Every structure is written in C-alpha cells, then in structure tokens.
Predict the 3D structure of the following.
Amino acid sequence: EAKRAKTQRGKQYQRVMSEKIKRRLAYVDDMKQGLEQGDFELYYQAQYNHYGDIIGAEALLRWQHPVHGKESPAVYIPIAEESDLILAIGQWVLEQACRDIKKLEQLSLPDSFNKIAINISAKQLIQHDFQEIVLNAVKKNDIPAKRLALELTENLLVENIEDSIKLIASLKENSIDCAIDDFGTGYSSLTYLKRIPASVLKIDRSFVTNIAKSSESAAIASMIISLGKTLNMDILAEGVETKEELNCLKELGCFHFQGFYFSGPLPFDEFAKLITNN
Ligand code: C2E
Ligand code: MG
Ligand code: MG
Ligand code: MG
C-alpha cells in the first residue's frame, strides 16, 4: 500500500516536472523568436556625479513576452542563461550598445559623459574569444573603446578568478573598463578583490535602500566605500531612490549614483534627449 502510494507520488512528480520543463523550453523559444523579430530593446539609465552631471549610463535589456507582457530581465535572463541563447542575446546587447554609442558620438555630449556599461553573463565571459568578440564589435561600429564598459557580478568573477583577472587586465589595456556589479551580495574575499583590476565598484541596491534607516546597512556601505577607495576604484551606488539616501551616501564619501531619484531606465531617444539637455 505504502509502496503504491510512493510510485503514485513519483509519477505525479514526473508529470509536474515534465510540464515545468516543457514550459521552460517554450519560454526559451519565445525569447529566441523575439530576438529574431527584433523585439528586444536596450534602455539606458543615466549615472550621475555629485554635481548632477551625467557621467555615463547602464544599458538594461527590455523584452515584452507575447503573452505575459513586459517582464523583468531578472526573470528571463536566468532562463536564457540555462541555454546557449544567452550568448546570442549577449551578442545582440553588445552590438546594439555599440550602435547606440555611435549615435551618441554624433550628438554634442557633455564633457562629463564617459561611457555606457553593459551587463555580461557568466557564459559570455568564459568564451575563449570573449575579448576578441568585444573588440570586434567596437571596431565594426567605429567607436572609441573607452566609451564601452562591462558590468560583471562579484560571484561571476570569483568563480573564474584567475581567468577573470587576466581578462579584465587585458580589456583595460584596450581601454575597456570593468565594474563589479551588485557588490556586497556575493562571497568575494578581500584577497580576491584586491587582485581584480576593475575600475568601478557598484554598491548593491540592498544596502542603499536601508541606508538612512539602518545603521547596519550604513556601516556596510561605509565599509565598501573605504574599501573601494583603498583599492583606487570609483564607487557608484545603485538604486538611489530618495534625497535621504543620496545625502547619506555623500556623507559616507560616495559621489557617483544611479537610481530612480535621478532617472529610471529610458528608451534610447529619451536618454539621448536627457543627456544633451543635462
Ligand atoms: P543590475 O545590473 O543590478 O541592474 C540594476 C537594476 O536595478 C535594473 O533592473 C534597474 O532597472 C533597477 N533599478 C535602477 N534604479 C533603481 C531604483 O532606484 N530602485 C529600484 N527598485 N530599482 C532600480 P532591471 O532592468 O530589471 O534588470 C535586472 C537585472 O537583470 C540587472 O541587474 C542585470 O543583472 C540583469 N540584466 C539586465 N539587462 C541585462 C543584459 O543586457 N544582459 C545581462 N546578462 N543581464 C542583464
Ligand atoms: Mg548592472
Ligand atoms: Mg547592479
Ligand atoms: Mg542588481
């Protein structure tokens, strides 16, 4: 009796699993089709210094699922990462960002403006010819390499630490800077951080959100800021939503910001307007 119940449960479990897998595969297909049809878009979120000048922007992927509507990249990027589709998506992001940089170059940009950063996934980074891919896109679109930057999460770097260090150093020699994204949420040790030749440390939003209310978050943010300074890195706080958060960050010595308080992610044309009017 017990045994029969167990096999029943096993069968049900298998059914649920295969349903789940089917849905996943269908979702990946939707993404693939969306990519082919040109349904993906890059939005740009401006980054500011403490004078209020725009110093750069982060490119953020946008896609509307045919049935589910607008979805967050936090939902579909991890699904794309389970298959090789992330490589095609990543390639599209790289090339679209380069095309948009080319368009920006033809506008009268403020002197404060430095670069556009794109987010990079683990599978992209571990491609043996990743650097070549990036440099080719830059060359093909005839843009200065210094206008493009890469955002890599802390965990991604730590998982391939020796290769990451070499790659980031080599990209830097080619004028392409890297930022460590979502810093503070991962498990990198100080020993690692010291060796990673990234130019920017992005304080994760989770510390910024509570900074004015929680002395713990403020203490962590403060520690990240002094760490970054010691290592000669620029520190940028992400997810700044309020004046209080901004003031707190300034007091702690952080002078670069990104967040809804300043501007949300915008379609390219709106971002171009924002930057030329700033
Ligand atoms: P991320 O790289 O840490 O990007 C920052 C996220 O915070 C973005 O969410 C942005 O819209 C959001 N954000 C910015 N300011 C604020 C704020 O003041 N308050 C709040 N609550 N949120 C804010 P988004 O666009 O949904 O992207 C989520 C994540 O998806 C990104 O986190 C990144 O990890 C990933 N992602 C986005 N675009 C790409 C891409 O082109 N390639 C890859 N591999 N990953 C991407
Ligand atoms: Mg990012
Ligand atoms: Mg981030
Ligand atoms: Mg984040």
Observations:
- The first strand starts at residue 41 and ends at 49.
- The chain is about 55% helix and 20% strand.
